[in-house]
Amino acid sequence: MAKKALYELAHTYPELTIDEREITTAPLSAWREGIRMIPALKCKGQILSGILLNRQAMLDFLKKAGLKT
């Protein structure tokens, strides 16, 4: 659900770049980057994570991090 919503946002906001990571193959790297729960979004050092991330929560987070609308 979060992945689909994020890619929809990327379609709407072309300046949004998605770098998808597979944390099961590199758990230490994810831990070092501050990822403690999946799904998670990281933008400019800030992290949003939660079991159910909806489109509006992600959009609010990205706007707060500096996404231009």
Notes on the structure:
The protein is of the alpha+beta class. It has one domain. About 40% of the residues lie in helices and about 10% in strands. The chain is built from 3 helices and 2 strands. The protein has helices at about 1-10, 25-30, 55-65, and strands spanning about 40-45, 45-50. Strands 1-2 form a two-stranded antiparallel sheet. The model has no long low-confidence stretch (mean pLDDT about 90).
Q: N-to-C SSE series?
A: HHEEH
Low-confidence stretches: none
Count of DSSP strands: 2
Mean pLDDT: 89
- Please tell me the total number of domains: 1
Radius of gyration: 12 Å
Oligomeric composition of the shown chains = single chain
Tell me, what's the shape?
globular
Query: What's the tally of helices?
Result: 3
Q: Trace the largest sheet across and list its strands.
A: 1-2
Distance between the first and last residues' Cα? 22 Å
Largest sheet: 2 strands, antiparallel
Kindly name the structural category: alpha+beta
Helix content, binned percent: 40-55%
Percentage beta strand: 5-15%
